[in-house]
């Protein structure tokens, strides 16, 4: 059980939870490492305590049903443990899949280090398909509130993250630098606004 105590000690400075909650989270993390699945039935079979699997399963379901997790505190803990040097590169991405008739659609903001994006903040979208400008802006602004003094190299995103309101927000003086992919067919206006050309032609020299 030494690993449980060590994880619990590592969690304590970052999460202002009761000791029993911290211990539960430590048990849960170790179970995840062992099973490598998020199925609660399977996690209950390797929960590192003296309870029967059925009791562990009930404990797991009670936690997720009844305990309000402060995900901003989780974000601070992840960033603290990752020790990624500033300035940071952020990645905005979205994933959508179905679990039966339920759509699971996540807009994710990650912290990039050595080619890996570590999930920091996310928004569960109550719909299928792409996010809209308001949802992206809310997520980026939330990051700014939680990490107000962070040095940001740039925000990256795929070519699906388009929209006049979204891009106008990114161009505000206080917004972070950004690098967004363009479609080859996207039409780009000149500074005067009089001429528009396809992106593939504008950047043909690259």
Quick structural summary:
By secondary structure, the protein is α/β, with parallel strands linked by helices. Helices cover 41% and strands 23% of the residues. The longest helix has 17 residues, at 19-35.
What does this structure look like?
- Helix 1 packs across helix 2 and helix 6 runs parallel beside helix 7.
- With 206 residues, the chain is of the alpha/beta class.
- The chain is elongated.
- The protein has two domains: 68 residues, no CATH class; 119 residues, Nucleotidyltransferase, domain 5 (2-Layer Sandwich), CATH 3.30.420.
- The protein has eight helices and seven strands; from the N terminus they run H-H-H-H-H-E-E-E-H-E-H-E-E-E-H.
- The chain starts with a helix and ends with a helix.
- 41% of the residues lie in helices and 23% in strands.
Give the topology, please.
Layout: H1 2-11, H2 19-35, H3 40-45, H4 53-66, H5 71-82, E1 88-99, E2 102-113, E3 116-124, H6 133-146, E4 152-157, H7 164-170, E5 178-180, E6 187-189, E7 196-198, H8 199-202
Parallel strand pairs: 1-4, 4-5
Antiparallel strand pairs: 1-2, 2-3, 6-7
Helix pairs in contact: 1-2, 6-7
- What quaternary form is this? single chain
Taking strands numbered 1, 2, ... along the chain, how are they ordered across the largest sheet? 3-2-1-4-5
* Helix percent band: 40-55%
User: Count of DSSP E strands?
Assistant: 7
Order of helices and strands: HHHHHEEEHEHEEEH
What is the number of independent domains?
A: 2
Report the CATH architecture of the largest domain.
2-Layer Sandwich
Would you tell me the overall average pLDDT? 89
Radius of gyration: 21 Å
- The CATH class of the largest domain turns out to be Alpha Beta
- How many alpha or pi helices? 8
Low-pLDDT segments, ≥5 res: none
The coarse silhouette is elongated
Strand content: 15-25%
SS class: alpha/beta
CATH topology of the largest domain: Nucleotidyltransferase, domain 5
Distance between the termini: 56 Å
Largest sheet: 5 strands, mixed
């Amino acid at each position: 059980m030494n690993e449980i105590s060590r994880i619990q000690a590592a969690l304590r400075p970052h999460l202002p939870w009761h000791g029993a909650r911290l211990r539960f989270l430590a048990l849960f993390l170790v179970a995840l490492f062992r099973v490598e699945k998020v199925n609660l039935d399977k996690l209950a079979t390797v929960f590192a305590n003296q309870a029967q699997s059925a009791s562990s399963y009930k404990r797991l379901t009670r936690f997720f049903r009844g305990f309000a997790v402060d995900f901003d505190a989780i974000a601070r803990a992840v960033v603290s443990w990752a020790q990624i040097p500033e300035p940071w590169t952020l990645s905005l991405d979205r994933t959508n899949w179905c679990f039966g008739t339920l759509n699971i659609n996540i807009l994710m903001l990650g912290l990039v280090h050595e080619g890996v994006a570590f999930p920091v903040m996310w928004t569960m979208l109550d719909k299928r398909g792409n996010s809209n400008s308001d949802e992206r802006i809310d997520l980026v602004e939330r990051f700014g509130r939680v990490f107000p003094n962070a040095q940001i190299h740039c925000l990256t995103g795929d070519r699906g993250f388009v929209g006049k309101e979204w891009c106008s927000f990114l161009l505000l003086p206080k917004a972070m630098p950004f690098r967004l992919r363009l479609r080859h067919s996207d039409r780009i206006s000149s500074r005067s606004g009089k001429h528009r050309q396809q992106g593939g032609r504008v950047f043909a020299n690259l």
